[in-house]
Structure to design on (491 residues):
C-alpha cells in the first residue's frame, strides 16, 4: 500500500530506514548517494524530519552535527511504526479508510477536510480506482461508495490493512483483539492443527473488518456461492456457536447471520495449514469427495496433471495433507480475486528458474485443457497467485537432478577444514539451488565453482573462482547468489 505515497514521503521513510540500519553517524555524502538526490535536498529533508519526529514521538530523535546524522531510538521501538505513521497521515490512506467506513459525504467535502485541491483529490481517486480494478471493485462518485461484492470489498480491506499494519498495530478500536484471538484458538483446537502467529492475526483482521462493515449496514447479500461451506467441515455444530460469538452484539436476521458465518469460515478455509493427515482432515476430505465442490475438483484435476506430466521423487497425489492444502489454495482462488502481491496468507519459497519453468509450463498446458470449463477456468485464471502458492507444496517433489543443473562447489578456506565444513552446511541451508560440495582435497574432481577466501595457485588458474571474505557478510552472500544464478543460466 506504500505505492500510493508521494515521492517525498517515500524518501523520508528511506532516510529513516538508512539512519536506523547501523548504529553510527551517516555523512551527508552517504545519505545523498543512498537517496539518489542532491545534498541540498537531504539537508531540507533532515530539517523537516527532525521537526516531525519532535511532534510525533519521544521514542526516536535525530541528531545533526559535524559528524553527520545520527538517529537514536528506544530499545523497544519498532522501525515499521515510521512507515505506518506516514501512511496513516497520507491522503491515499484516508481516502480508502473513509470509503471503507462509508462516511464520505462528497469528494469535494473530503478534499476540504484533507486541505487539498479538488484536482489532487481526483488524482488520488483515480489511483485507487486502478488498484480496485484488480479486485473487481469500483468507486461511485455520488455519493462516494465502494461498488462490488461485499466479500470482495472486505477482502481488499483485509489486504489493505494487513499490508499497512502487518500486525504491528490493531487498527480496529471497536473490536477486542484478544477476544477474537481466543475464539480463533478454540477453533484451532477443534480442528487439531494450528495457524501460525501471522495467519492467526490475519484472520483476526478479517473478522474485525467484517464487524466494522456489518455495524455500518454493509451486509453480504448476493454471495450465495458461500452457502453450505461450513457444512463441509466436521463438527460444524460446534463451530457455529464460536462464529456467533465473533459476531456478538450485531443486529442480524437468521439468514444474514448464516451468510456472515459462512464468510468468517472462508477466512480460515483459504489457509493451507496442514502438516500431517489428522483424522479431522481425512473426514473433511471425505466430505469433499461426497459433495465434490469446484475447488476440490480443481485440486484433483491439477494433482493428476502434475502426477502424469512431471518427473518427481516420493510423490503421492492422494496424500491427504497435500490434497487439503491445495484445496485451501483453490478455495482462496475461487472465493477471492486480487493482486498476487497483496493476497492474504501467501507463502512463497525460492526456486530455481528451471523448477519454476517446469511448473509454469505444466500450468499453461493444464489451463488449455480446462479453459472451456467456466468454473474451473475462473479458479485457474489467477496464475501468478496459484503458482507462488503451489511452490512450498509441490516443488519439494520435483526431481531436481532431472530438471536442474547440479552445481559442484569446492570450498577452500584459510580457516581450515572445520570452517569449510561449517560453510558447507551454511551453503546447503541458505540456498535452494541443486548444490553438491566437493571436498577441498579432491584435486581431480570436476568443479563448477571454487569458493575461497584466499588466492591460491589453483584458484588463480581456475576460470570459475569466487573470492569472498573469511567471514562472509550479507553482501558476500548476495554476490554469491547472483553468481550461482549466472552459472545456472549459462549451463
Amino acid at each position: 500500500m506504500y505505492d500510493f505515497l508521494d515521492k517525498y514521503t517515500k524518501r523520508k521513510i528511506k532516510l529513516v530506514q538508512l539512519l536506523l540500519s547501523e548504529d553510527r553517524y551517516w555523512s551527508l555524502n552517504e545519505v545523498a548517494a543512498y537517496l539518489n538526490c542532491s545534498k541540498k535536498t537531504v539537508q531540507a529533508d533532515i530539517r523537516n524530519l527532525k521537526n516531525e519526529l519532535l511532534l510525533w514521538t519521544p521514542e526516536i530523535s535525530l541528531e545533526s552535527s559535524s559528524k553527520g546524522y545520527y538517529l537514536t531510538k528506544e530499545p523497544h521501538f519498532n522501525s515499521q511504526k515510521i512507515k505506518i505513521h506516514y501512511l496513516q497521515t497520507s491522503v491515499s490512506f484516508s481516502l480508502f479508510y473513509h470509503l471503507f467506513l462509508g462516511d464520505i459525504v462528497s469528494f469535494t467535502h473530503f478534499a476540504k477536510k484533507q486541505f487539498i485541491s479538488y484536482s489532487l483529490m481526483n488524482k488520488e481517486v483515480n489511483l485507487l480506482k486502478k488498484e480496485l480494478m484488480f479486485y473487481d471493485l469500483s468507486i461511485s462518485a455520488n455519493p462516494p461508495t465502494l461498488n462490488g461484492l461485499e466479500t470482495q470489498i472486505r477482502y481488499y480491506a483485509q489486504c489493505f490493512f494487513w499490508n499497512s499494519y502487518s500486525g504491528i498495530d490493531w487498527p480496529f478500536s471497536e473490536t477486542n483483539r484478544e477476544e477474537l484471538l481466543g475464539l480463533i484458538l478454540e477453533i484451532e483446537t477443534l480442528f487439531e492443527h494450528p495457524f501460525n502467529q501471522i495467519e492467526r492475526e490475519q484472520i483476526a483482521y478479517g473478522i474485525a473488518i467484517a464487524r466494522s462493515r456489518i455495524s455500518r449496514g454493509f451486509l453480504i447479500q448476493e454471495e450465495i456461492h458461500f452457502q453450505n461451506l461450513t457444512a463441509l467441515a466436521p463438527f460444524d455444530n460446534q463451530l457455529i456457536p464460536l462464529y456467533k460469538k465473533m459476531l456478538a452484539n450485531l443486529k442480524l436476521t437468521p439468514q444474514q447471520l448464516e451468510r456472515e458465518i459462512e464468510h468468517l469460515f472462508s477466512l480460515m478455509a483459504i489457509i493451507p495449514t496442514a502438516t500431517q493427515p489428522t483424522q479431522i482432515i481425512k473426514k473433511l476430505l471425505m466430505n469433499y469427495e461426497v459433495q465434490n465442490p469446484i475447488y476440490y475438483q480443481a485440486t484433483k484435476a491439477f494433482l493428476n496433471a502434475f502426477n502424469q506430466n512431471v518427473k518427481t521423487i516420493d510423490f503421492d497425489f492422494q496424500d491427504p495433507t497435500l490434497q487439503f492444502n491445495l484445496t485451501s489454495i483453490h478455495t482462496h482462488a475461487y472465493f477471492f480475486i486480487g493482486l498476487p502481491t497483496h493476497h492474504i496468507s501467501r507463502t512463497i519459497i525460492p526456486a530455481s528458474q528451471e523448477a519454476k519453468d517446469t511448473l509454469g509450463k505444466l500450468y499453461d498446458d493444464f489451463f488449455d485443457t480446462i479453459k472451456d470449463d467456466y468454473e474451473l477456468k475462473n479458479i485457474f485464471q489467477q496464475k501468478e497467485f496459484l503458482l507462488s502458492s503451489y511452490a512450498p507444496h509441490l516443488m519439494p517433489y520435483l526431481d531436481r537432478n532431472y530438471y536442474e543443473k547440479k552445481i559442484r562447489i569446492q570450498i577452500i578456506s584459510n580457516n581450515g577444514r572445520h570452517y569449510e565444513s561449517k560453510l558447507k552446511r551454511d551453503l546447503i541451508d541458505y540456498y535452494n539451488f541443486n548444490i553438491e560440495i566437493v571436498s577441498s582435497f579432491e584435486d581431480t574432481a570436476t568443479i563448477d565453482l571454487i569458493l575461497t577466501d584466499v588466492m591460491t595457485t589453483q584458484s588463480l588458474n581456475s576460470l570459475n573462482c569466487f573470492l569472498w571474505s573469511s567471514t562472509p557478510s550479507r553482501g558476500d552472500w548476495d554476490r554469491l547468489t547472483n553468481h550461482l544464478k549466472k552459472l545456472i543460466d549459462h549451463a
About this structure: Strands lie at 60-65, 68-73, 138-140, 145-147, 407-412, 435-438, 449-452, 465-467. The mean pLDDT is 86. The radius of gyration is 27 Å.
